[in-house]
Amino acid sequence: MSMIIITDQEFTSFQRFIYDAAGITMSSAKKALVGGRLAKRVQQCGMRSYGEYFHLLASGNAATEVQTAVDLLTTNETYFFRETKHFDLLRELATAARKRTQPFRVWSAASSTGEEAYSIAMVLEDCLQGAPWDVFGSDISTRVLQRARAGHYPVERTTHIPPGYLKRFCLKGMGAQQGTILIERGLRTRVQFQEINLNAPLPQVGQFDVVFLRNVMIYFNEDTKRQVVDRIVAQIKPGGHFLIGHSESLNGINDAMKPLAPSIYRKP
Ligand SMILES: C[S@@+](CC[C@H](N)C(=O)[O-])C[C@H]1O[C@@H](n2cnc3c(N)ncnc32)[C@H](O)[C@@H]1O
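Above are the sequence and the S-adenosylmethionine SMILES. Below is the predicted complex in C-alpha cell form.
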C-alpha cells in the first residue's frame, strides 16, 4: 500500500475542521500528527488523498464519518486518580457532606475513557457512607464513551488506584479476561456518560457540587476557553468547586471563580 502524504493545504482544511467541530486549535507543528492519525482511515475509505477525505467530511452527508474523524483527532490520554490533590479535596468535601439528603453531584466534563469519573465515584461511595451521590461523565468522542461505559481496563492502567479501592470496586478478570479489571457493577451503573460538545450550548445537565474540567482547555484558544468555562461555571452550585489541569489556569479567562490553590477554584 503506498503512503499518502498530507499537503500543507490539506492540513489547513483539517485544522479548520477540528476547530469547527470541537473548538480544538492545532498549530502547524501538528501536521505530521494529523497525517498519522488519519492515514489508515483515508485508505480504509478508499480515498486517494487527504483532500478527498476532507471533501467527504465537508459534504454534509457523512455525519458518522465526521464523528470518526473527531474521534481520531482528539487526544484521550487519561488515568485513574490523576493529580491526587484533587481527590484529596474531593474526599474532604464528600466527608463533610455525609449528612446531606440531596445528592452530591460531580461532573467529569471531558471524561475520555472514564478513569476520572470512576475515580470520583470510588471516593464518593467511600466517603459519603450511604449519602446519595451522582457522577456524570461527558466527552465529544463517542469512541471513548463506549469504553467508559464498559468500565473494562487493562490491569496496567490501575496502578494509581488505592489498594483498598482496587479490592472493593474492581473485579479481576479470569480466564479470557485475565490481565483486565472490570469496574464493579454497583459502581459502574451509577456513573452516567453522555456525548457533549463543550464548545456548543450545553444540554440540560443540572447543577453540580464539583466539576472536573481537566486537560482539555489546553487544546482551546482563549476565546473558546472563555466560552467553555462560562458555560460550565453556570452549572456549578454557589460554593461549589471547579478543578482544572495543573498546566491550565483561569487567569484572564474568568475572574468570578475564586482561586483556592493552583488548579482549584470555588464559586462564590
Ligand atoms: C486529554 S483527555 C483528558 C481526560 C481527563 N479529563 C483527564 O484529565 O485525565 C481530553 C478529552 O477532551 C475531549 N474533548 C476535546 N474537545 C472537546 C470538546 N469540544 N467537548 C468535549 N470534550 C472534548 C477529548 O475527546 C478527550 O477525551
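The pocket of S-adenosylmethionine is lined by residues 22-24, 74-78, 82, 110, 112, 116, 139-141, 144, 197-199, 214-216, 219, 245 (CB under 6 Å).
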